[in-house]
Automatic annotation (TrEMBL):
The chain crosses the membrane at residues 267-289. Pfam families: EphA2_TM, fn3, PK_Tyr_Ser-Thr. ATP binds at K378. Keywords: ATP-binding, Cell membrane, Kinase, Membrane, Nucleotide-binding, Phosphoprotein, Receptor, Repeat, Signal, Transferase, Transmembrane, Transmembrane helix, Tyrosine-protein kinase. It is found in: Cell membrane. The gene is epha3. One of its GO terms (molecular function) is transmembrane-ephrin receptor activity. One of its GO terms (biological process) is axon guidance. CDD domains: FN3, PTKc_EphR_A. This is receptor protein-tyrosine kinase. Its EC number is 2.7.10.1.
């Protein structure tokens, strides 16, 4: 037998040895011939590039520098979903990662890849992922410690929700049907509402009705008896509508036939007359109640109904906000609600800030035969996608529907030339939060209440229109040279994209935690009542001259503390009545929060009676434990209605509450515990003229 040298990375102890052992960290795979060099695991893949498309990502990488002396290299991609949001809403250095869910799709597969690319699909929207790409060869399993991988971290984009797949029929009658459905498997964001489209099966979609619902159920009324209908549901998030569900068929019940015997005809006649009378009465009552409800404003502003017959839109009599997303072609919406301006009428003077889509400038608008006015100009920076243009102009489509002194006024849009622009009235003092910080402690109580009154009035208008703002915060209020405050920021993607305060929740949505009501954080229940919670935070921001709510507490700690019943303490020198209003806005039970109409009227009365602002809720702006524990033993516990009434008698209620009106004794009962609990610092005084039955209004 002929001798030869040991192959590379192997050695023998004796001359003429039959076997060459491998050097340290070098191995032979099973099946490797003894004459083959010893090899080692490859180095990590290099130059990983990711390209994200909504909720999928294509990963590409280069071959490892060192193949370990082998040719049998394959690649494995490990997917991890990472979370980690710091107090200021930005990603913290220490992320918590967990393996991706099993329904994440890898194309062609996750392991044993021979090529240097893979597509990963069905990821969650707005989510951070880390991919670890490892190169493996035939000896990698011998040296787990030597294995190296390349990592890449990505954040997926927003994507429309996946289709609703499960629809159930709950109840059917001759003219109506109640349905429920399950949230799409991948909502990919906060579901704003569902669109329910239905039509008679025989009419083949030539005439159809569209309904919108916030929740996962609906009752369709006014249907024809004994008729087959087809229905489709699609969910909408800030990213737009998802695909429609498959058609769901249901039939209404047939008319029940009955005959009248000659003997009983008289009885039946009486019964029919009575029934007709009852129906007429019910209809009359229904109309009266309907009118009353419309006037006292929407108990159900969440649900809006649009009817389409042969594609024509018929809106009900009252003015409600129309969601631009309901338009197939969003540019149609913008031209319905916004005036197209000729760019030559606009002169841009300077840049005043940066918006989500581009710069915000100040300038002048001179329309033919009109006086020149100062304007703010939001521009859409070049290189935008169709979707960005749509989202940018959606704000104008929304703003253009409003006409109120406390809502930022839209002058028009420029869409037919570039840059695309949204032109609004100019607000000399900019955003309320920075304005207040610049003018710390410089305003009188009445001036502050005047500003707050303006914001509440704008919000009343919005809630009357059925519009839920979702991001009411001092940073989204603009102030003009007369200290008039106007609500702004109506972008549809705003809550998700634009607001630097917005942070991801565990359910995947992005929410400005500190300003948002617990039910909106927990299960996305955004209503005018959640806007009222945010209004309470704005009230606190105003009275503390732009202090950050909950200071440096982390978002998670804020959620926990609020859930446990803690509330922000009164800002320094805050009038007791205003602090009470804050606490009312922060009632856990959303129906107990004041309506904007009530807030406006409370503030109006305070303005008429400035003496009422003198009594302060005397707490330092920052107690040791940051928040006030409403269940703390330091404050009297008010177990019963009588207890709090006794408590109330110890307060200087006449001064503290004169001019403050609550709609019912019930509201008062619910709020009064907090009146006592939180105003223990108010100088005790008796209030002999107050009687439990009187309610605060009558004081
Ligand atoms: O606090 P600011 O000066 O006021 O900085 C922000 C910036 O643009 C980005 O939003 C300012 N801004 C936005 N809209 C207007 C407006 N209508 N009038 C004046 N300034 C505005 C805002």
């Amino acid at each position: 037998m002929e001798c030869s040298k040991c192959p590379p990375h192997s050695f023998s102890h004796h001359e003429g040895s039959l076997h060459c052992g491998c050097e340290k960290n070098y191995f032979r795979a099973e099946g490797d011939p003894a004459s083959m060099a010893c090899t080692r695991p490859p180095s990590a893949p290099r130059n990983v590039i990711s390209s994200i498309n909504e909720t999928s990502v294509i990963l590409d990488w280069s071959w490892p520098e060192d193949a370990g002396g082998r040719r049998d290299i394959t690649f494995t991609v490990l997917c991890k979903r990472c979370r980690g949001v710091a107090a200021n809403g930005s990603n913290s250095g220490t992320q918590r990662c967990e393996p991706c869910r099993s329904n994440v799709r890898f194309l062609p597969r996750a392991a044993g890849l021979h090529n240097t690319t893979v597509t990963v699909g069905d990821l969650l929207a707005h989510t951070n992922y880390t991919f670890e790409i490892e190169a493996l060869n035939g000896v990698s399993s011998f040296a787990p410690k030597m294995r190296q991988y390349a990592a890449v971290t990505i954040t997926t984009n927003q994507a429309a929700p996946s289709p609703v797949t499960v629809i159930r029929k709950e109840k059917t009658s001759r003219n109506s049907v109640s349905l429920s459905w399950q949230e799409p498997e991948r909502p990919n964001g906060i579901i704003l509402d569902y669109e329910i489209k239905y039509y008679e099966k025989e009419e083949q979609e030539t005439s159809y009705t569209i309904l919108r619902a916030r929740g996962c159920n609906v009752t369709l009324n006014g249907l024809k008896s004994n008729t087959a209908y087809l229905l489709q549901i699609r969910a909408r998030t800030a990213a737009g509508y998802g695909a429609s569900s498959p058609s769901f068929q249901f039939e209404t019940s047939p008319d029940s036939a009955f005959s009248i015997s000659s003997e009983s005809s008289q009885v039946v006649l009486i019964a029919i007359s009575s029934a007709v009378a009852i129906i007429l009465l019910t209809v009359l009552l229904y109309i009266l109640i309907g009118r009353f409800c419309c006037r006292s404003k929407s108990k159900h502003p969440d649900e809006k109904r649009l009817h389409f017959g042969n594609g024509h839109l018929r809106l009900p009599g009252i003015r409600t906000y129309v969601d631009p997303h309901t338009y197939e072609d969003p540019s149609q919406a913008v031209h319905e609600f916004a005036k197209e301006l000729d760019a030559s009428c606009i002169a841009i003077d300077k840049v005043v800030g940066a918006g989500e889509f581009g710069e915000v400038c100040s300038g002048r608008l001179k329309l033919p035969s009109k006086k020149e006015i100062c304007v703010a100009i939001k521009t859409l920076k070049g290189g935008y996608t169709d979707k960005q243009r749509r989202d940018f102009l959606a704000e104008a489509s929304i703003m253009g529907q409003f006409d109120h002194p406390n809502i930022i006024r839209l002058e028009g849009v420029v869409t037919r030339s570039k840059p695309v622009m949204i032109v609004t009235e100019y607000m000399e003092n900019g955003s309320l939060d920075s304005f207040l910080r610049k003018h710390d402690a410089q305003f009188t109580g009445i001036q502050l209440v005047g500003m707050l009154r303006g914001i509440a009035s704008g919000m009343k208008y919005l809630s009357d229109m059925g519009y839920v703002h979702r991001d009411l915060a001092a940073r989204n209020i603009l102030v003009n040279s007369n200290l008039v405050c106007k609500v702004s920021d109506f972008g549809l993607s705003r809550v998700l994209e634009d607001d630097p305060e917005a942070a991801y929740t565990t359910r995947g949505g992005k929410i400005p935690i500190r300003w948002t009501a617990p039910e909106a954080i927990a299960y996305r229940k955004f209503t005018s009542a959640s806007d009222a919670w945010s209004y309470g935070i704005v009230l606190w921001e105003v009275m503390s001259y732009g202090e950050r709510p909950y200071w440096e507490m982390s978002n998670q700690d804020v959620i926990k503390a609020v859930d446990e019943g803690y509330r922000l303490p009164p800002p320094m020198d805050c009038p007791a009545t205003l602090y009470q209003l804050m606490l009312d806005c922060w009632q856990k039970e959303r129906n107990n929060r004041p309506k904007f109409e009530q807030i406006v009227s409370i503030l109006d009365k305070l303005i008429r009676n400035p003496g009422s602002l003198k009594i302060t809720a005397n707490t330092t702006s920052r107690p040791a434990n940051l928040l006030l524990d409403r269940s703390s033993s330091e404050v009297p516990s008010m177990g019963t209605m009588g207890d709090w009434m006794d408590g109330m008698r110890t307060l200087p209620c006449k001064e503290a509450f004169s001019g403050v009106s609550y709609s019912s004794c019930d509201t008062l009962a619910k709020t009064s515990t907090e009146v006592v609990l939180t105003e223990v610092h108010v100088t005790p005084a008796t209030c002999p003229e107050w009687e439990p039955s009187m309610g605060i209004t009558t004081l």
